[in-house]
Design brief:
With about 450 residues, the chain is an alpha/beta fold. The chain has three domains: about 70 residues; about 120 residues, Alpha-Beta Complex (Aspartate Aminotransferase, domain 1), CATH 3.90.1150.110; about 250 residues, 3-Layer(aba) Sandwich (Aspartate Aminotransferase, domain 2), CATH 3.40.640. The protein is about 40% helix and about 15% strand. The strands form six sheets. It has a five-stranded mixed beta sheet, sandwiched between helices. A four-stranded antiparallel beta sheet has the order 13-14-17-16. Helix 2 packs across helix 3, helix 3 packs across helix 4 and helix 5 packs antiparallel against helix 14. The radius of gyration is 28 Å and the shape is globular. Bound molecules: pyridoxal-5'-phosphate (PLP). The site of pyridoxal-5'-phosphate has 16 residues, from helix 7 and strand 10. It is an enzyme of class 2 (transferase). Its main location: cytoplasm. This is L-seryl-tRNA(Sec) selenium transferase. Converts seryl-tRNA(Sec) to selenocysteinyl-tRNA(Sec) required for selenoprotein biosynthesis. It is found in: Cytoplasm.
């Protein structure tokens, strides 16, 4: 057999290619190991598809692989889903003040756990505690990685090896496998279910209290609502019952807002201030839900109990980093001026936008979007309903306005809509909408960067 007749033999070796000026320059720019690996990958593609060796095809393949490899995996997208605090899309956008604070401490050393007055070791919670106490009326506060961690830490510290009565109506599952019964198990405490799914009375709790009981607890049913013939026990009465038995009363508030959202025309969500005033000894809530800050879990309450949480070795494992602390401190500072919060906090700004305001934006974007999508589709601006997200106020809807892309020929199959949604996701700043009623719906409530949206629609689809 004549081996020279095999066109693959005309392929240069990786080492030969590395000496090519074009490749050498890439290696100088991006590092030899990466470029070498990509060359090998490009060659193995070419071995199957292009023979004999085609230098242009080779360069194109290398460039493509390199571009994919070097573009970050985690990147910005435009959240036009209509769900403002979208867990899969990173929940709350941060205000500029928080971004600046993170940048300032990211670059170098900080007084993260260093007391500048005494020159001694400090406590990372110290940067946040005073703010949290002022804003919630609590005596003390600590912060961990997220609210799931906060609940785990509270239960493991105060209820390890003991029983925790919880209403059957509150055994929640939050997305991503946070289920109250499982968390109890991991916290090494024993869940004692009380009451029924729809009705739980004070007497149910009272009967459940034994010498093995560690505390009483309320879990906010943040992502569902039990309606109809229902009964729950108000915080005040549960706190009283717990205290009559010398037990702490704790509340997992889920989202928990630090302000009364009705001020911005939004539905009311329970606040940690109310729970503390009602007698709760500890209250936990998320930093990146309605609060509008970075991912973290905040626990506020009695000094003695917070002190015990901090001594639990789990606290060390669940603590949050300096970037989170910097961002949260900056966000909490915005809360000291509630008047301006609606403009300064991006999540609240998005949540409080009126449908009229969003509709004006849709008007501006309709024609450019129609030009981008091309003839097969008609683009309209329509009234839709959005939601807050992250389990906050699950059944309240936000009147919003969306750009709706619908087939002009009325007979588009689901796969064509999926392809359209995929090309929106394939843009440089991916646009994430939702598919509903045979259309792609782009709810513009969260679109604050109109320029980024328009810029990338200049090239036709
Ligand atoms: C969201 C939520 C959690 C989990 O909070 P993360 O900050 O997402 O960890 C726990 N409990 C309730 C009631 C919630 O709504």
């Amino acid at each position: 057999m004549d081996l020279s007749a095999d066109p693959r033999r005309t392929l240069p070796s990786v080492d030969q290619l590395l000496r090519w000026p074009w490749v050498a320059e890439l290696a100088a720019q991006h590092g030899q190991p990466l470029v070498k690996e990509i060359i090998a990958q490009a060659l193995s593609t070419l071995r199957i598809t292009v023979t004999p060796f085609d230098a242009d095809a080779f360069c194109g393949a290398v460039q493509n692989i390199l571009t994919t490899r070097l573009s970050p995996s985690l990147r910005r997208v435009l959240n036009l889903t209509g769900t403002v605090l979208h867990t899969n899309l990173g929940r709350a956008p941060l205000p500029e003040e928080a971004i600046a604070a993170m940048t300032a401490v990211a670059r170098g050393a900080s007084n993260l756990e260093f007391d500048l007055d005494s020159g001694r070791r400090g406590d990372r919670d110290a940067h946040l505690e005073a703010w949290l106490c002022r804003l919630t009326g609590a005596e003390a506060a600590t912060v961990v990685n997220n609210n799931a961690a906060a609940v785990l830490l509270m239960l493991n510290t105060l209820a390890k090896g003991k029983e925790v009565p919880v209403s059957r109506g509150e055994l929640v599952e939050i997305g991503g496998a946070f289920r109250m019964p499982d968390v109890m198990l991991r916290a090494q405490c024993k869940l004692r279910e009380v009451g029924t799914t729809n009705r739980t009375h004070l007497a149910d709790y009272a009967e459940a209290i034994t010498p093995r009981t560690s505390l009483l607890m309320t879990v906010h049913t943040s992502n569902y609502k039990v309606v109809g013939f229902t009964a729950t026990v108000p915080e005040q009465r549960l706190a009283q019952l717990a205290h009559d038995h010398d037990l702490p009363y704790i509340v997992d508030l889920g989202s928990g807002s630090l302000v009364d959202l009705r001020r911005w025309g939004l539905p009311a969500e329970p606040t940690p201030m109310d729970s503390i005033a009602n007698g709760a000894d500890l209250v936990s809530f998320s930093g990146d839900k309605l609060l509008g800050g970075p991912q973290c879990g905040i626990i506020v309450g009695r000094r003695e109990l917070i002190g015990r949480l901090k001594k639990n070795p789990l606290k060390r494992a669940l603590r949050c980093d300096k970037l989170t602390i910097a961002a949260l401190e900056a966000v909490l500072r915005l809360y000291s001026d509630p008047e301006r919060l609606g403009e300064r906090l991006p999540s609240l700004r998005a949540l409080s936008r009126s449908r009229e305001n969003i509709a004006e934006q849709c008007e501006r974007l309709m024609a450019p979007l129609a030009a981008w999508v091309g003839q097969g589709y008609e683009v309209t601006s329509e009234a839709v309903m959005g939601q807050i997200g992250s389990g906050a106020l699950p059944i309240e809807q936000l009147p919003s306005q969306a750009l709706v892309l619908r087939s002009a020929t009325a007979k588009r199959s689901g796969s064509q809509l999926n392809a359209l949604a995929a090309s929106l996701r394939g843009l440089p700043v991916p646009i994430i909408g939702r598919i509903q009623d045979a259309s792609v719906i782009l709810d513009c409530r969260c679109l604050d960067d109109e320029t980024a949206f328009l810029e990338q629609l200049k090239d036709r689809r």
